[in-house]
Design goal:
Phosphorylase Kinase, domain 1; three-stranded antiparallel β-sheet; globular; 11 strands; alpha+beta; six-stranded antiparallel β-sheet
Length: 250
């Protein structure tokens, strides 16, 4: 087993060494699909551990010899974001367990995020009365892009927020798919494709984003909507295929 522990959390080393065995019954399951998220408390502090699905065989080889695992990337990207002044829950450790010499299970452990709201709440309800949050979100995204941060899964479930001391603050989750590089305008605008299904919200946020960057708002909205519509069309086609398959199987 490989354990990489944030030096600030050395007191948790013994507990982290036991985590892979304890994971299936640890604390409370808060999400389970391809991967599993469990929240637990230890010595009065709340933590979250993400257990990644066992990769397919070819990826087990890749993650063992050629590429960092998802858990390692999540840990290192969290450290990098926080060093850049971008909020994400404090990373505590990542753990890799091998079987037959190849990566089997991996885990990423962090503190919990204190923010209770998620951008998913904007999938309905329109803009009215929520302009302050949407403008703050546009400004937050400007900060990310100007610092060269491209979150490849910049979706509603991976963006938490809340009001703290009169300010709207955002925190990023699910960090294993990120790039750090200079972003072209096309990359920036395409990054809005999946954060919200409501086109009215997307139009409003992109127009505000463009205004903050000194870009033409209408041209920016038009370009962003190309990527937005392509993304949601793909999602709808996949859902339709699932429905057809389910119908044929029943």
């Amino acid at each position: 087993m490989k354990l990489v522990l944030n030096p600030a959390y050395r007191r948790l080393e013994k507990f982290m060494q036991q985590l892979p065995l304890a994971f299936p019954t640890l604390g409370e399951c808060i999400y389970k699909a391809r991967n599993e998220l469990r929240q637990f408390s230890y010595e009065g502090q709340n933590y979250v551990v993400k257990g990644y699905k066992v990769p397919i065989f070819i990826n087990r080889i890749a993650y063992t010899f050629f590429r960092p695992s998802k858990a390692e990337r999540a840990y290192k990207y969290a450290l990098r974001l926080r060093a850049m002044g971008i909020e994400t829950p404090a990373p505590i450790a990542y753990i890799e367990v091998k079987r037959g010499g190849l990566l089997w299970h991996s885990y990423f452990v962090s503190e919990t995020c204190p923010y209770t709201r998620m951008m998913r709440e904007f999938d309905g309800g329109g803009v009215a009365g929520r302009e302050d949050i949407l403008k703050a979100f546009a400004a937050f995204t400007v900060e990310l892009h100007e610092k060269g941060v491209q979150h490849l899964d910049y979706s509603a479930g991976n963006i938490l927020f809340d009001k703290q001391d009169g300010q709207i603050r955002f925190s990023l989750l699910d960090l294993n798919r990120m790039r750090f590089h200079a972003m072209t305008p096309k990359m920036c605008l395409a990054n809005f494709s999946r954060f919200c299904h409501d086109e009215v919200i997307v139009r409003y946020v992109v127009a505000e984003y463009a205004r903050l960057r000194g870009w033409d708002p209408q041209r920016s909205v038009d370009e962003a909507l190309v990527a937005y519509r392509e993304f949601w069309s793909r999602i709808e086609r996949k859902e339709e295929l699932k429905r057809r398959h389910k119908s044929l199987a029943s």
